[in-house]
Amino acid sequence: MKCNQFEEGEIPYETLEKFGLTHEMIEDLPMHVLEDIWSGRQSPVLPIHVTNDEGELIKSRTRFSFVRMEDGKVDVMFYPVLKYAPLEQFDDNQQQLLKDGKAVVADVMSPQGTMIKAFVQIDPETNQVMNVPTPVIGRNLQVLSEELGLGSAEIKTMQNGQPLTFVIDDEPVTVGIDLNSTTGIRFAQGDEQQWKERGKRDWDKFTFGCYGCWVTDDEGNHDYVLEDEYSEELWNEQKKSAQRNASLRSSRGTAGASSWVTVPSPAAISVVQA
Q: What is the mean pLDDT of residues 100-123?
C-alpha cells in the first residue's frame, strides 16, 4: 500500500507554474505517475520553459520531485536533462560501467554530509547520476534470491551491475538493478538488450485527462495539449479511448502485501540539495 508523503493542499503549484508546469498539466498526468509523485518519487521527464532576464523563452526537459523543508513546507527539486553525466568522482572502470548503463557500488556523500556505500547509476533520460544506499537494494536482492532460488554467484553478478537472464516457462526473463524502479530491481521479458530497451515505463501515445492530453512521441518525449487546442486526430482518439479507459479503470484489482522494500526516490549526485 502506498503512503503519500504529500497532500494536494500543500503542493507548490505556483512554483511549478513558473516553469510552465500548470496545475492542469499535473492533474492530467497518468494515475501511476501521480501516485509516485505524491509518495516522494521523481516525475517522468517533462517539458518546462522559463523566460530569462533578456526576455528569451528557454525550453528544456526535467524530472522533478517534492521535498519537505525544515519549516515543514513543501518545495520542488528539479533534475534537468544534462548533456553529459558528471562522473569525475569515479574511477575509469566505474565510469565505463556507468556509461554502459550498469549500476556500480561506490562511496558517495549522503544528504547528512557523511560518506556511505551506495548503488550508483546514470538516469538514461536525464544523465543525472543517481544513488541509493546499499542496504535498501541489498534487502531486495535477498528477497529476489529467496523467491527465485538464486545462488550467491548470481546475486554477485547483479551487485556488479550486470543484468541476469534466466528462463521461466521456456521464456527468457531478465532482471537487473534499476534505480528508477520502485524496488530498485526491474524485471523484463526477453534478454539483456530487451531489458535495457524497456527501461522507460511506457505511456500510451495519448493520455487524456480532464483539461487536456499528454502526447508521447516515438522517442518517448511527453508534451501537453490543452483541450481547446485539440486537432481532429486528438478529438477522434479521445472518442475511441473513452470506453477503453473506463473498462480498464473498472477492472483494476488491489495488490496484495509484499516483502519487497520500496526504494525512495534516488538521490541525484549532480544536484546540490538545499
A: 90
| pTM assigned to the model | 0.78
Please give the average per-residue pLDDT across 1-25, as a whole number. 86
User: d(Cα 212, Cα 224) in Å, to the nearest integer?
Assistant: 7
| Amino acid (one-letter) located at 8 | E
Alpha helices in 13-60 (DSSP H): 13-18, 23-27, 31-38
Cα distance between residue 241 and residue 205, in whole Å: 11
108 backbone dihedrals φ, ψ, rounded to 5°: -135, 165
Strand blocks (E) in 69-221: 74-80, 104-109, 115-122, 129-133, 164-168, 171-177, 185-189, 206-208, 212-216
Q: What pLDDT does 181 receive? A: 85
Mean pLDDT of the chain: 86
CB neighbourhood size of 54 (10 A): 6
Which cell is 182 given?
520502485
Residue 262 backbone class (left: φ over 0; alpha: ψ -120 to 50; beta: rest) = beta
pLDDT band at 47 (very low <50, low <70, confident <90, very high): very high
Residue type at 147 in one-letter notation: E
| Identity of residue 134 | T
Checking if the pLDDT of 261 tops 90, the result is: no
Q: Measured between alpha carbons, how far is 1 from 44 in angstroms, rounded to an integer?
A: 21
Quote the cell numbers at residue 247: 473498462
